[in-house]
Specification:
disordered N terminus; alpha+beta; 33% strand; single chain; 4 helices
Length: 243
């Protein structure tokens, strides 16, 4: 087992738990997303490498969704740790048969809270996102970057959540230790995602109504697909219209 010091990222002995809404920049993530349960594989990377479970608990009804069946994560402080874990987890996955899913390695340049304030009046976000599938026949591969906008699903203003879904973000629900969160995501090329990230922060700071809210960018460094193709990955941004 690799004995990395990860206590500053998640608490020792809590690898199987989901993390809180704390923020931390300048670190690395490795995620294993599988469409099959792959319980033995996920347990193995928990025990041998220090991953923890981060499984989703559904999605808002009536909207496209892309959450995996099983999701495991590790957060690492240095590029050296990231590279070593990446090689180890690839070897463990290749020892298993029938894994359907993907492994992604990311760098977190931005991770920030959005303070709560009461919503005085509602107005929709000033943008509309058009999404599409990745097209490998055009030479397209994995996304360049993504952001995750996380908030308390049951105690934030549902008008705001619905408006963001209608604008083109997609969502998944995650049961945390003391509340249910929604993770709203957008993926694609960095030249499209970065301005949208800033626009969403500005919108939420203006309108308010969101509790326990954070937003982070995750830049893709590496990826590996297992028994799936690029066009089975979550949708990416095709275009954004700003109003």
């Amino acid at each position: 087992m690799i004995n990395y010091t990860l206590e500053t990222v998640h608490n020792k002995g809590e690898k199987m738990n989901t993390e809180t809404e704390s923020t931390k920049t300048g670190i690395y993530h490795v995620h294993l997303d599988t469409q099959t349960t792959s319980a033995e594989l996920h347990q193995k990377i928990h025990e041998e490498l220090g991953f923890f479970s981060h499984n989703f608990s559904g999605h808002p009804e009536g909207y496209p969704h892309f959450e995996p069946t099983s999701h495991s994560t590790i957060k690492l402080e240095s590029k050296l740790e990231f590279e070593e874990v990446w090689e180890r987890v690839i070897k463990l996955i290749r020892q298993e048969n029938g894994v359907v899913g993907y492994l992604e390695g990311e760098y977190i340049p931005t991770d920030q809270p959005i303070p709560f304030k009461e919503m005085s009046r509602f107005f929709p976000p000033p943008f509309t996102i058009k999404r599409r599938k990745i097209d490998p026949e055009k030479g397209e591969g994995f996304r360049e970057t993504e952001f995750h906008l996380v908030m308390d699903f049951d105690n934030s203003e549902h008008k705001v959540i619905t408006a963001l879904l209608e604008a083109g973000l997609y969502g998944a629900l995650l049961q945390k230790s003391d509340h249910r969160a929604i993770i709203l995501t957008c993926q694609g090329r960095r030249r499209l995602i970065k301005p949208l990230f800033s626009e969403i922060v500005k919108y939420l700071n203006n309108i308010g109504g969101v509790k326990r809210c954070t937003i982070k960018e995750e830049v893709a460094l590496k990826h590996e697909l297992f028994n799936m193709s690029e066009n089975e990955l979550p949708e990416v941004v095709d275009s954004i219209t700003y109003i």
